[in-house]
Amino acid sequence: MPTESISGSCLCGEVRFEVDPPFEGFRYCHCSRCRKASGSAHAANVFVAASQFRWLAGEPLVKRFDLPGAQRFAVCFCTQCGTRMPHKVKSTDNMLVPAGVFDGDLGVRPQNSIFWKSRAAWYASPHDMPRSDEYA
Ligand SMILES: [Zn+2]
Ligand SMILES: [Zn+2]
């Protein structure tokens, strides 16, 4: 686990933040909400105590959507480029940070996959298919 702050940013670069390790958790979530919100096979979510999280720039550009009827599910995103951004998890002291928006390595690896039974019908392990370093 690194001891230095780790930075993250959106695609357009207007929103920037940093977190201090250690993290509370790191997992893939295959639930249908995370698949919709990420537009992908699963979310890769890092959880960190809110006291270890700081916005560095662009916070006014971040919009929050709380899913009606959901206990905690929310997404935040940069209104300029649409990139998912961290958000405070309701009724907890944690921030959820989408792992893909960090700028460097985290020094830790995901611990588990949750909502595995909800995974997309088309989901296939990347290890079961040919892999290319760039476009195939
Ligand atoms: Zn942006
Ligand atoms: Zn989920």
- Tell me about the biggest sheet? 5 strands, mixed
Give the spatial strand order of the biggest sheet: 9-10-4-3-11
CATH topology: Metal Binding Protein, Guanine Nucleotide Exchange Factor, Chain A
Number of helices: 1
Give the % helix: under 10%
- Domains, number: 1
Q: Spans of 5+ residues with little confidence (pLDDT < 50)?
A: none
Multimeric status of the protein = single chain
Named once each, the bound ligands are: zinc ion
CATH architecture: Beta Complex
Overall outline: globular
Give the strand tally.
11
Structural classification:
mainly beta
> Kindly state the mean pLDDT as a whole number?
96
Would you kindly provide a written description of the structure presented here, covering whatever features stand out?
Helices cover 5% and strands 35% of the residues. It is mainly β. The protein has one domain (6-117): Metal Binding Protein, Guanine Nucleotide Exchange Factor, Chain A (Beta Complex). Strand 7 and strand 8 form a beta hairpin. The relative contact order is 0.26. The structure holds zinc ion (2 copies).
Give a short overview.
This protein is mainly β and 136 residues long. The protein has a single domain, classed as Metal Binding Protein, Guanine Nucleotide Exchange Factor, Chain A (Beta Complex), CATH 2.170.150.
